[in-house]
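lol ok so funny story. i was supposed to be doing the assay writeup but got distracted and ended up predicting the structure for this chain instead. priorities right. anyway since i did it might as well share w the group, maybe its usefull for someone
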Amino acid sequence: MLAQVKRRRRSPAQRGRAGHFTAQGFLFAYRYSPLVLLSLVAASFLIGCGKQSISQSELRAITTEIVAAAESISVHKPEVIVRPEIHTVSGGKVSTDHIYITLEGDSEVASLRKALEGIAHRHHLDLAESGTGVRRFDFIFHNELTHSIHVVSPVARQPRAPAGRSASGPRLAIVIDDLGNDRSAADSLMALPFPLTISVLPHLPLSSQIAEEAYRRNDEVMLHLPMESERESSPSEGTKPEKIELRVGMNRGQVHEVVTAMLDTVPHAMGVNNHQGSRATTDPALMQAVMEELRSRGLFFIDSRTTASTVAYGAAQASGVPAASRKVFLDDTPTRKAILEQLDLAARDAARDGSAIAIGHPHPATIAALAEEAPRLEARGVHIVFASELVR
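and the output, tada:
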């Protein structure tokens, strides 16, 4: 039986930048008095069929109704987070409220769906449903997304045994990189019934949403931090730099500015691993600046080891940042057979050394191989844990 993961207390630094206002939106929980709630709901009835858009006050009034409906259907008061996001379109700026609701059981989800149908009908909104691992309901007004309701459960449905440092035997952490664009892949990953460390690229359309959902599923969130690659300086390689990344020559202030902006888009990040970075991670001055920044935030570091010449792990140790290094890449060859072989290699490394970290990507073959092989790894006595449990 695979490990049940209990929510661990996080320090303020580890909770990401929840509550910090950014251009991407800000995180807050709606908690209104009955009088304010009634006034906002009443205002929402002013929405008419002839309007082509919804005002901010009307949108928030609908949000209040959704929150009230969620809180009324659950025996245990559900955790509800609202994250407004502002988008620029040809006609100007529009706002979408992303609402994250933690519910348990199909009956509560069914009750919420019924309540949402009623709200949509009253306000002349279209309702769309999607998602597998994470259920999602969208409100649409004249082809404009006004609300996206993400229903997540605190743990996957398959029971898990306790996991963590107390587990005896070899331990294996599986980090999945490059999240932030593909919702279906993220949903499939979060439905897997064992601990995963989700590493999210910043500044992508779904970065914040996927990080928020992973956190509410009790998976561990990391920032997949873009860094300069050697290949960027070689036109023949055809590798373009990321729009925002850490580059050789940046000073401490520039590193702080870049990392701050990235963490604003990946809430609840507890640690960092490098995305690319074959040039950046060989530069001692840049790595020292990075580790000073991570230490100030209480974040750990996983060296993806995109080059054998990396000095990142040593810089982390010298700066007092909890750190570890990747042992195995799972899907350089993204086929089921090759990935299963790499998982076996990672398990053997963990058995030999006591622990190991494997990094993969959200390919369909990777997700399928993980779902197939994880129970067999546990049967072999290899415990799947979070990356934070292997840093030192």
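The longest strand covers residues 92-102. The radius of gyration is 22 Å.
back to the writeup now i swear
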